[in-house]
Write a structure and sequence with these properties.
InterPro entries: Ald_DH/histidinol_DH (IPR016161), Ald_DH_C (IPR016163), Ald_DH_CS_CYS (IPR016160), Ald_DH_CS_GLU (IPR029510), Ald_DH_N (IPR016162), Aldehyde_DH_dom (IPR015590)
Bound molecules: nicotinamide-adenine-dinucleotide
Helix content: 25-40%
Structural class: alpha/beta
Protein name: Aldehyde dehydrogenase domain-containing protein
Radius of gyration: 24 Å
Keywords: Oxidoreductase
GO molecular function: oxidoreductase activity, acting on the aldehyde or oxo group of donors, NAD or NADP as acceptor
Shape: globular
Active site: 271
Largest sheet: 7 strands, mixed
Distance between the termini: 75 Å
Strand content: 15-25%
């Protein structure tokens, strides 16, 4: 258990140093055969940095063909026995893993902060949510079954949901433990085995999940981690013994993964980007709508795929809405991610910081006005990372680049509207369709608008809540398939139909 320094002023340094020198960072970060290991051949290194200080904690070796082959081969071996267990037996392992995650919650959360730079309270919520997901699929595993179909003359047919084989996963960097657990737990519940490549920016907690599974009794070879960048991801995606790829990341990469999977007709789940609308009607509860708009934009430094970054506000309430929003946004505490009262942590990297600042500059050039934030902030001389004050833009128009493209930073674009029909049309005018929010006290309107919006996850009078069991995924270019919910089991299984003849075979020959 990592213990924070009692002296608050040096808290972040002591804690970061304590974690960076801990086994989580310095130990090998591949996970094969139920234990950590280094790759047998190194096809390059990448830096592991703590976003808040921008310091390099270590270099991580990228895995090449030999190690990807080994990981897939271990997973094939693991599949032989794991797929033969009953759902109940598999579920028990997952449920034990969920409990271990809860016991190790603080350690997992502190390590997640080191990886991502997000505030510790958010990391704790993330870990709790991940444990719930693993628990949930543990509970569902025993219920994965087929159907019995009675046919004529006593004949019948039955269906069986069978696992696919070895599932490959590739993740983004904003919710590292969530990517690993949202993909591995349904895959394992269904009897598949799993090989995961985390984002090179956030390699740590997926390996800890491997240790958790091991402790819970998951047989060796069923959950494997290979670290690396694009090349490693390509090797995994194109491996002939991978039956399915489950990918979370950007639209361009998702498109490449789908193309690569097409060659071998592999199954694919894609969780991609978003540019979602958050619609504030004049009859909303204003305080809740402001809170909702902030939740829709400012969690995890704005680096959330489902964010409602196009905030459509009815013209009649723009004045009071904006006044309250700006006042509360300015009160957000930007600072050391390990401090309990911090609400804005560090942007993941300099590269992402540059992208965010470019979008803000371009927005200004195209006619938008910054009413607050959008600047680099120095919170402490020791924290040399890229902290950005949450940014609110007004005078936005639908054609502006910042309104059309995903920024993946704390940049909220405010747009005004007059009528319900108009706002639905404008909200749907996007190639993406991940999520959306509706704030109104009119139940009929809420239902009508939710039915009309082209998106996979909608929130009425709230935003960015992910209760376990609710499916999540995109429409249009935001993705294919679903995660987190019962529907996900369909994406990790294939249906076998068996016809049983009870009489003689009839034929015209
Ligand atoms: P990215 O697409 O750049 O990278 C994602 C992962 O793909 C990384 O692990 C990377 O190493 C790997 N990769 C890159 N090129 C590859 C290739 N050709 N073949 C195989 N693997 C490859 O995305 P990112 O910058 O890490 O994440 C940000 C994006 O992720 C945003 O667009 C965000 O909206 C999206 N995202 C979506 C969800 C969701 O659930 N819909 C969740 C989180 C993030």
């Amino acid at each position: 258990m990592l213990r924070p320094c009692p002296y608050v002023r040096c808290f972040h340094r002591c804690l970061a140093t304590s974690i960076s020198s801990s086994s989580q960072v310095q130990a090998p970060l591949n996970f094969l055969s139920g234990k950590r290991c280094d790759p047998s051949e190194n096809i390059g290194n990448f830096d592991l940095k703590y976003p808040a200080t921008d310091e390099t904690l270590r270099q991580v070796p990228s895995s090449g063909e030999r190690d990807v082959n080994e990981a897939v081969s271990q997973a094939r071996e693991g599949f032989r026995s794991w797929s033969k267990l009953s759902g109940f037996e598999r579920g028990n392992v997952l449920k034990r893993a969920a409990n271990i995650m809860r016991e190790r919650l603080e350690e997992l959360a502190q390590t997640e902060v080191l990886d991502t730079g997000k505030p510790i309270w958010e990391a704790r919520c993330d870990v709790q949510g991940c444990a719930d997901t693993v628990d949930y699929y543990g509970g569902l595993a025993a219920r994965i079954s087929g159907e019995f179909l009675p046919l004529s003359n006593g004949c019948f047919s039955y269906t069986v949901r069978e696992p696919l084989g070895v599932v490959g996963g590739i993740g983004a960097w904003n919710y590292p433990l969530q990517m690993a657990s949202w993909k591995s737990s349904p895959a394992l519940a269904c009897g598949n085995t799993f090989v995961f490549k985390p984002s090179p920016l956030t390699p740590l907690t997926a390996v800890m999940l491997g240790e958790v599974y091991k402790e819970a009794g998951l047989p060796d070879g069923c959950y494997n981690i290979i670290q690396g960048e694009t090349k490693t991801g390509q090797l995994l995606t194109t491996h002939p013994n991978i039956a399915k790829m489950s990918f979370t990341g950007s639209v361009p990469t998702g498109s490449k993964i789908m193309e690569a999977c097409a060659k071998d007709i592999k199954h694919v789940t894609l969780e991609l980007g978003g540019k979602s609308p958050c619609i504030i009607f004049e009859d909303c509860n204003l305080e809740n709508a402001v809170t909702g708009a902030m939740l829709a934009n400012f969690l995890t430094q704005g680096q959330v795929c489902s964010n409602g970054t196009r905030v459509f506000v009815h013209k009649s309430i723009m004045g009071p809405f904006l006044a309250q929003l700006v006042e509360r946004t300015k009160r957000m505490k930007i600072g050391d991610p390990y401090l309990e009262d911090t609400t804005v942590g560090a942007t993941i990297s300099k590269q992402q910081f540059d992208i965010v600042m470019r979008y803000i500059e371009l927005a200004k050039k195209e006619g938008a006005t910054v009413v607050c934030g959008g600047e680099r902030v120095t919170v402490d001389p020791h924290l040399r990372g890229y902290f950005v004050s949450p940014c609110i833009l007004v005078n936005c128009e639908d054609h502006m680049t910042v309104v059309r493209e995903e920024v993946f930073g704390s940049v909220m674009s405010i747009l005004t509207f007059d009528s319900e029909e108009e706002v639905i049309r404008r909200a749907n005018d996007s190639e993406l369709g991940l999520a959306g929010g509706i704030f109104t006290s009119n139940l009929q309107r809420a239902y009508r608008v939710a039915s009309a919006l082209e998106a996979g996850s909608l929130y009425i009078n709230n935003y960015n809540v992910y209760p376990v069991g609710v499916p999540f995924g995109g429409y249009k270019k935001s993705g294919l398939g679903r995660e987190n919910g019962p529907d996900t089991l369909d994406y990790y299984t294939q249906v076998k139909s068996v016809y049983v003849e009870m009489g003689d075979v009839e034929a015209p020959f």
